Amino acid sequence: MVSTGRKQASGDAELRRRRAEYADERERGNFFHPRAESCPWCGAREIGPRIRLADTRQGKPGTFGMDECRSCGHVFQNPRLTDAGLAYYYRDVYDGLGREHYASIAERSRPAYRKRVQLLDDHPRSGRWLDVGARQGHFCREARVSLPGTTFHALDPSEEILRAQDRGWVDAGECTPLLEFAEDHVAEFDVVSLIHYLERTTSPREELSAVRKVLRPGGVVLIELVNPHSRYARLHGRFWYCWMAPQNLHLMPRHNVRELLEEHGFAVSHVELGAANKPFDNLAALLTALNHHLPPARPWPWLSRGGGPAGRVLRAGAMLLAGPFLGLAFVLDLLLHLVIRRGRGGNTYRIVAVAG
């Protein structure tokens, strides 16, 4: 009993410490740039609000506007988060308190990882592969099973990628930004993968320029991005999971990305549309709405206060009652995917391009 009491007291003290750190950072932080008056993609001034979002994943405070360019269709966060704001909202998502939750999601994504690798079946893949925005390294771990002769190098801001190197999931892991990394690794890689990475960068144009720099002539880039024209984006509104607010800064229509690749000397060899769809929209929207409206599952340190025992009981009861609806949404997603995968829609698209 004494040991349990000490552990509880230590946990409470740690929660208070982290809560004070989050509160202090929030109070001191300059989290937003001035509002942009033109499209960051094409420069047009014909922009307007698309949707206002909250952080529905972690429930961190703040609201985030997404504007859309009426000229090129680019969707972007406006005003955009500063580096301090991004650091605040990324903390404890893929590492720290969010490490285990993300790892459980990544473990269930192995079929999607294998499909990405299969897209390169018609391209030479042996040699060196750079995965940018690798998070915990799960994709590299899966890919190297299929490609035993390939060396995997991975970049991610989180130190979780260093743990991936220790586990042997990647051959080398670094927290170095791609723009900096590219200066010292010109023409060293045969493949570069950007899996839901460009959406979260401040300048996708500069990032693709860096990709071209690190690729050898004839090298391949594999890109996976959220499709902002998905019908579910309109249907589910702010609870569409793929908004991923406030992490996603740019949601780019595929024709924009294709044009940008060609500007940087790439030849697009394959575009995967409906087949790239991830069949979870309805289930994820329902879970996102529940998570947003119900008391928190835990007294997270970024919240001013926890939900308390009564709140946790309410949450557990509501989730139990929602069980049949969640099951129905899961089945509906699988059935609709049979149709979506044969079309040109879906929540995700993939592009493979070859460096000239």
Descriptive labels:
Rossmann fold; 42% helix; four-stranded antiparallel β-sheet; alpha/beta; seven-stranded mixed β-sheet; 2 domains; 356 residues; globular
Lay out the secondary structure.
Layout: H1 2-28, E1 47-54, E2 63-69, E3 75-77, H2 83-90, H3 99-107, H4 110-118, E4 127-132, H5 138-146, E5 150-155, H6 160-167, E6 172-174, H7 178-183, E7 189-195, H8 204-214, E8 215-226, H9 231-236, E9 250-251, H10 254-263, E10 266-272, H11 281-293, H12 308-340, E11 348-355
Provide a short characterization of the protein structure.
The chain is α/β, with parallel strands linked by helices. The chain folds into 2 domains: 98-277 and 341-355, Rossmann fold (3-Layer(aba) Sandwich); 282-337, no CATH class. It contains 12 helices and 11 strands.
